[in-house]
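seq as requested:
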Amino acid sequence: MLNINRITITGRLTRDPETKYLSTGSAVTTMAVAVNRRYMDRNNEWKEETFFIDVEIFGKQAERLAETLKKGRPVYVEGRLKIDTWERDGQKQSKPRISADRVTGFDVPQRQGGEGDDEGGSEAPRSRGPNPSSSSGRSSSGSPSDNLDFGNQGGGVEDDIPF
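struct tokens:
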């Protein structure tokens, strides 16, 4: 029988990473990641849910991450899912945790001309094609990924994927 226990998430750190050292001298860094899911409900209203998960990582990467990552930073996490179990007041408790093999911080492109854009840059937002909310009757909020600026990575060619 094939058994696979792999998990991959992206989210934001909810607190600064904390590092402790085991009796063997190996570092273990713990952090908590908030993973958001935005979806449209049956009433065509945007809803958002957030899942919080603890992450641990060992060794040299653990030391490096504690020095470079801070609360609020977006991270990519790969690892395996573990379940911590304990008993409190006669009741069994459990909580999922990721034992990470890899944690990487990254930057998120900023929205153009949208909410929270107070920097007042002189460059006008580039058009990325037709606005799907103008013809579908949906609210102007559109998709969660509308108006993200990924820079000029396509060599000046607009994406024209038919699906």
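The CA atoms of residues 4 and 140 lie 42 Å apart.
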